[in-house]
Input
Amino acid sequence: MQVYEQIRADPEFTAALGRVTLAAARLESDIRVFLALHDVQVGSKTMFGGLVAQLKDHGLVSGNGAGMLRMLARQRNYFTHSLYDLCTARIDQGLMLREELADLRLLAERAWFLEENLNGLSQIAEERIAELKTRGGQINGLLFGP
Output
């Protein structure tokens, strides 16, 4: 519990985690718009993993692109849903080792890299969306290719 309290009190990590949350929400929104432009209806509560599945099911992302998105979703989920359980040994070590939790700088850097990756993909997605909209309809092409 002491490690969790140190993590929770660290302003650099908590700010980075907040930015990860914002970046993930941006990418989810971009994927929803891209799917809608291809007449794929998804529920407003469909989360990141479900959106990636819809892209894959409709042939709108390559296998490599889907793998990359799943990896980022897993990292985001680990930060937002598993960190406390890792700190308290309620789960086995996964994407992070328990001893790494004490290195607050490392945690903040991992969150920063995840945020950068999510924002970079959002930028690509927003460019694809703009391209679709300027062409006045659907065009063939993947959101994220090989």
Notes: The first helix runs from residue 2 to 9. The chain has a mean pLDDT of 89.
